[in-house]
Structures are given as C-alpha cells and as structure tokens.
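Input record (one chain):
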Amino acid sequence: PAVSAGAPGGLAALRRAPARRGPDGAPVEGERVVDDAALARGVVLELGRRVVLLLHRLPGGPRPPEMGLVGDGAAMWALRRELARVADTDVPVLLRGETGTGKELAARALHAAGHRAAGPCVCVSMAAMPSSTAASALFGHVRGAFTGAVADHAGHFAGAHGGTLFLDEIGETPPEVQVMLLRALETGAVQPLGARQERRVDVRLVAATDAPLEAAVAEGRFRAPLLHRLAGYPIQLPPLRDRREDVGRLLIHHLRQALEEIGEGARLEPPAPDGPSWLPASLVARLARYDWPGNVRQLRNVARQIALSSRGLAEARAGDAVERMLADPAPAASPEAPATGRRRPADITGDELVAALRAHGWRVDPTARALGIPRASLYMLIDRSDRVRKAADVPRDELLRVHAECGGDLVAMAARLEVSPRGLKLRLGGEPD
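The corresponding structure, as predicted from the sequence alone:
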C-alpha cells in the first residue's frame, strides 16, 4: 500500500509505489514516516496526473450544520460549532482572524441561523467609511444637521432594525464615533446628528477585525470599554494554511463560479474514464502546498485568474501572475501578530514591503501594523519603491479591462492590479465611464 497507519514515531507511513509523490512533491523513495507535525499541516499526495489526496486528521464528534460555509475539516467544524452556539442569541460577537478568512460570510451565517434571519443583515466596512461622515452613516442625521444635509438620513443602525449589523474592520472606527457606538450598545438607542431625541433600535451587532485591538487599546487608539462590549463572545476564524484539507473544495467552488461567469462551466464536469482532466493534478497539488497569506479571498482571486488564463484551452494553466505567486517563498507576517516594537523604515526591504502589502490586500493600515511602522512611514516607502505602483498610475485601458474581467469587484481588481483598494476606489470615482 502507499499509506499505512500506526507507523513508529508517527501516525502514517508512505511506501514507494508507482507515480506517487510525497509531502514535498518528490517521489517517495523507500518508506517515509509522516509525523504528528506533518499530519497536522496536511500531507499532499499526487497519484499520477489525475488524483491529488490530502492525508490529514479527521474531525471528531457529530457533524455541525453547514451554515453556508465551504469546508469540511476540523478547523471549520470547530468554527461552525462556535457560530451555532451563539447564533440564536443577541449577544454581540467579535469575529477575529486574518484578512481574507471570510469574516463577513461568518457574520451572515450567524444572522441566517438565528431568530433574526427574516430581518435585514447590513454589512459595513469601517475602513471604507470616511471619518467625517462615519457618525452620520451609522446613526443617521436630520435635515439641516450640517452643511449638505438636505434631507433626513436613517443610518445603518436604523436600516438593520430587527436584524443584524455587521461592522467589519472595527479597529478603524474614529475615536469620536467609538463613544457613540458604545452608548448605542449599552442603551439600545441611537441619536441621529442634529436630532433632539434618541431612537430605539433593535439590532444584533457583529464586529470583525484583523488587527490586535488590545495593542490599540494600550496605545490609546481604541476604547477598552468598547472592546469589552463588542467581545460579548469572541470567535477566531482559522487561516487557510490551517485548513489545507479545504483548499481543494474551495478551489473547485470558486473556479466553478468563475468558469460559469465566462460560459465555460462544463470544464469541471468529470472526464471520460480514459480522457484527460481539464484541471491537472499537479496544479492542484501546488496550490494545496501554498500557504495562502491572503487566505480564502486570495484563493478566490487565484481561481478567477486561472479561469481567465485558461479560457478556451484544453487544459487549465496557472498563468503568469499565479506562477509568480507560487514561486515567491517570502513569508508574510500574520495580521493578528502585534508588532513587538516600532521599526525603522530603513530596515524594511523591498521584498518585505511587497510581501506585506500583498498579504494584506494592498491595504495601508493593516500593512503598517504588521510591519511595525506608522502609516506615514509606509506611504513614504511606497513612494520610494519602484516595485509598488499607485492606483493613479494604472493605465486607463488596463483599468477598464480588469474592471470588466472582475465584474467591478473592487477587492478582486485591487488584488489583480496590486494597488490599494482605497486608492482604486478614489480612481474609480470618475471611471470607468
């Protein structure tokens, strides 16, 4: 057999067999023991050009409800159990995890599984909200409250009445809005700007962050009482590198969506018994061995790139951008890891700068935190680097082409163009026409 259980010093052994490749992609020579650490990571096995297997631990206990989340490994079972545990309550939930791990999907799963499922689910990114309008956007305003307020505006809390309000990137909330948000959580009421009376709102709040909020509290950038109120029940989302057994499922899920968008959904139909597979096992194995610093969001974008690079071809190909990604060995810092101290911008290499930007979706704030430098210093490094381009520098024809290929998805466009999503949003203010 190629695999046997109960090997001394580990949980399984790989024995040499025709057309089989071991954990590092090399042919198995003799017998190789798979120890606990390798098994926890997941061992990718290639069987010829048609089959890829992953040797890993199976989750225990009864299968939790699917909750609309793709994945069937131990980490996802644990996440589903945590979500199901609090879904039918009104306790505020704080979703924590690296960028791209699917925090909005988890928030929507909480909403759909609870007693508020028939109500609205309003999802808002605090990072994408200008500081000057954040209070009005969340709590509303009345006509005449400020210059330009020509009509009453209800705000997101009122829009989520009877349902769930999801506030992503909660660490980016302006200080003055943090005070108002804390009062809304404690009293169940909001006061629109310019209004004399508060308005009662029935909202279940779910917040999310990829930032170390405890460090922000220590630095005076985030209010400790608000953190304690938001974290009524904290849930940690696993990074994709810790759920390698789900890479294949997620790849097929997002690849099928991308292929259907371009009219080639039949590519993933099972091939004839002796016919070639459109998706080669070698490509799947390489993707399964990758660590995915951008997590599920990065995998989704890669699936779209593979679909477009392989358009009309008899066999899927990675494409230049994916090949560069797979060839890049530079590790990315975990967005959850707090900086051990401020660093000198001069100590950050070009490779580290690009790797950190790529890992954090080219967003300035989380990249600056991961590198341990102020935002201003990161902007300075970007300005000086000849390897990082700005959204304003993207040629118009390239911008229009990527806009069409990504269906206007800002996150996907930013990943493809390798520019800041915020800068791209500003650029698209007048484009495409």
